[in-house]
Amino acid sequence: MILDYPTLKLIWWLLVGVLLIGFAIMDGHDMGVGTLLPFVGRNDTERRVVINTVGPHWDGNQVWFITGGGAIFAAWPIVYATAFSGFYWAMLAVLWALFFRPVGFDYRSKIHNAAWRSTWDWGLFVGGFVPPVIFGVAFGNLLQGVPFHFDDSLVPYYTGSFWQLLNPFALLCGVVSSAMVTLQGAVYLMHRTEGEVYERTRKAMLGAGLVLLAGFTVAGVWVQEIPGYVIAGAIDPSALPNPQAKEVVREAGAWMANYRDLPATLLIPVLAYLGAAAAVWLAWRGRTLAAFVASSLGIVGVIGTAGVSMFPFVMPSITVPDASLTVWDAVSSHRTLAIMFWATLIFMPLIVLYTGWAYKVMAGKVTAAYVRENEHSAY
Amino acid sequence: MVTEQLVDLSRLQFAATAMYHFLFVPLTLGMVWLLVIMESAWVMTGKLVYKDMTRFWGKLFGINFALGVTTGITLEFQFGTNWAYYSHYVGDIFGAPLAIEGLMAFFLESTFIGLFFFGWDRLSRTQHLMVTVLMAVGTNLSALWILVANGWMQHPVGAEFSYETMRMELVDFWAVLFNPDAQAKFVHTVSAGYVTGAMFVLAISAWYLLHGRDREFARRSFSIAAAFGFASVCSVIVLGDESGYVVSEAQQTKLAAMEAMWETEPAPASFNVIALPNEAEMKNDYALHIPWVMGLLGTRSLDQEMPGIRDIVARNRERVEVGVEAVRLLEALRADPSNADLRERFDAVKEDLGFGLLLKKYAASMDEVTPELMDRAARDTIPQVAPMFWSFRLMVAFGFALLALFGLALWHSVKGTFEGKPWLLRWALCFLPVPWVASELGWFVAEYGRQPWTIYGVLPTHLSVSTLSVESLYGSLAGFVGFYTLLLMVEMYLMVRFARQGPGSLGTGRYLNETAHA
């Protein structure tokens, strides 16, 4: 194997980050569109315009979520096992909300009935609004630590409840996440629409952008108060993964340690600010494509900030800190990481290429005239 | 705590969600190639009817596909939510095909399905055909990787247990990919999907012909479905899973159970056409058998012996005993990892570790294990015979009935006489649900037949679950079943509505029912 084990462990932390960011950029914009749908589309034609901006693409975009799940399963199996079983009801809420999307998109306009269509519009809203909120709440809980531990055979036990996930800091993270996705969706929607829908989306865009900037700032201040986690003593990155072999302490301000040790990493939260602010500014002035790029960079910054703050932790345990899961000891074997690395390296560029082509084919404004002409085939 | 009730509910939830998912998958697998065939005909001949066929059947395909995606999301995450220990224990091997499925197949399929529906006016004919082909390739590759993962559960090759990480680890990726069990499953499963797609088109076309409407459209659809379906049903039967059954022990067990073959017979074994299995006494109260046939089917030879259930239990009883020792040594080794002697002794018996783990259902510690418990664990390695026996027979009977139907449909479509054969059209219409029933029975045989294991010989089902509360499971199970049933009703409503409306729903002005709104 060309790459050694510690390097691959590090690469996989980056790759999971890439997949999460890819998910937030791609599926994020159609979830943002779903969130905005009932508010910026006031009649059936307008709503169809909104839906058809993402109609041909939402399905491909959703695969970022599926593949992200698969990649975490393959690269960090014990994280996949512990997080998804621990966050059981939160995870089910995400899945059940997502159920509304495929059927909402495909079935909504197949029947001429106002109640039918309105039901699916709200279904699409739920499918677009709920998952980002829950992902934000999940990140908020990861930053505080999650109540879990293992027994001798590494069976994970989650000892918290669903309701305690909904604590104030986590809810704030949910707001940040929702605002980030809504901004992304709004900027995209502006790029693909005109007229009334465009104007309403423009206002929503401004709101989402401001909430994102404010929420991110408050979370940044707050996170310095909550206890972070530190590995006490040395850890051997090349060791065989065993999440119970280290000593971990909780310390206020520990989530700031990486920025102190490596000041260059401060560029990542700076990117979050610059990206979001530039997106709002550019979109307000009608430069929607540039705004989409800026908003996407803002997403890199926001998710990157959470990742860099916690590194090397992935899922700290608040009840048994020593059992916390890190990029060094929650991973697959050297061979699996290597194979999955090459698979990702080969297929990811191909995915970006053909997805780009699909957007190019469907490029241009979606108008009321388009919806009328494609009465029988458009969503 | 893990109770039997929790295990049963977790299994029930997985079975329910997987079986719901598989109501939609086979139709997708088959329809997608029929769309490729129809669209190729459009590109080559330029006859508009073929374009209309692609678009109309594509519409129904889309209604089905939406629920395939909906129910599929659950399966990618349910290993984590409900089978946490399984995910930890085998994620090093099992996670890879799932992730590669996403990267290589599902992205392809899902990206191009968007262009399939929305790209008609923006792509050239050849470009659009290419999009449809890529969508079909993606769909089928997706099935390949999922069945590689599933095949590994039946026949776990290319992996080894590591006591340091307390899990199975990948040793040979190519062995996992070219697992003969997975390959046999792939061919059998996608062929069954092709039959389902063909049956769907055949049945609905037959309905149009019975009503004497949209005849040119329906006639061509019927003929394409008949030819494609006949080839596929031959493939399902000839390349049936059974070819894979001799290669591994798991499948020998499954085969013995579904044949109600209690004793090892001298080769070639006979085939039980009908039997009344008696679990308690491990014999058949009644059996009607044909000599030789089983040996021929199962081993493709006249001289290879096939083990009966009693012999498999006896063989597994020995492995359970060694397995108990393996569990003991593992516990000692976990406490003293650098002990070379322990390690050597563990390595000598670790092949049977899974059989020792079977006893964790009955005994908290290996010190509590008695010979009676070991007997019980060995007996547990055989799934219940009667459900296996009957499900398998029903599936095979449906398979041959479909062969007869497609054979006749093809014969009359070559002769051009099927329009005047209402009995054949009615038969095709009545048989619409049959491929679905056969597919679900097939999955039942494959998965129920693997019990008591999630990974054959490696990890028992009762150790695989997440440590959730029983109340959570009742809640989620009710939620899934309720939600899916509601969506299924909506889907059926739309499907029937559009099938009735027919190609007129495209609004091209060439068909019946054009005035109705789509």
UniProtKB/TrEMBL annotation, chain A:
BP-aspect Gene Ontology terms: aerobic electron transport chain
Q: Sorted alphabetically, which Pfam families does this protein's record hold?
A: Cyt_bd_oxida_II
Q: Which UniProt keywords apply?
A: Cell membrane, Electron transport, Heme, Iron, Membrane, Metal-binding, Transmembrane, Transmembrane helix, Transport
Topology class, membrane: Multi-pass membrane protein
Annotated InterPro entries: Cyt-d_oxidase_su2 (IPR003317)
Location relative to the cell: Cell membrane
Question: What residues form the membrane-spanning segments?
Answer: 7-26, 78-99, 120-142, 162-183, 204-223, 264-284, 291-315, 335-357
One Gene Ontology molecular-function label: metal ion binding
Q: What is one cellular component GO term in this UniProt entry? A: cytochrome complex
Q: Which domain of life is it from?
A: Bacteria
NCBIfam families (alphabetical): cydB
User: Which family does this protein fall into?
Assistant: Belongs to the cytochrome ubiquinol oxidase subunit 2 family.
What name is this protein filed under? Cytochrome d ubiquinol oxidase subunit II
Automatic annotation (TrEMBL), chain B:
Q: Does the keyword Metal-binding apply?
A: yes
Q: Where does the record place a coiled coil?
A: none
Regarding protein family, the annotation reads: Belongs to the cytochrome ubiquinol oxidase subunit 1 family.
Q: What is the protein's name according to its record?
A: Cytochrome bd-I ubiquinol oxidase subunit CydA
> How is it placed in the membrane, per its record?
Multi-pass membrane protein
GO annotation, biological process = aerobic electron transport chain
UniProt-listed InterPro entries: Cyt-d_ubiquinol_oxidase_su_1
Q: Which residues cross the membrane?
A: 20-44, 56-75, 95-117, 129-148, 186-210, 222-240, 390-411, 423-446, 473-496
What GO molecular functions are on record for this protein?
electron transfer activity; heme binding; metal ion binding; oxidoreductase activity, acting on diphenols and related substances as donors, oxygen as acceptor
**Localization per record:** Cell inner membrane
Q: Which UniProt keywords apply?
A: Cell inner membrane, Cell membrane, Electron transport, Heme, Iron, Membrane, Metal-binding, Transmembrane, Transmembrane helix, Transport
| Gene Ontology annotations for the cellular component aspect, listed alphabetically | cytochrome complex; plasma membrane
- Tagged with keyword Heme: yes
Entry-linked Pfam families: Cyt_bd_oxida_I (PF01654)
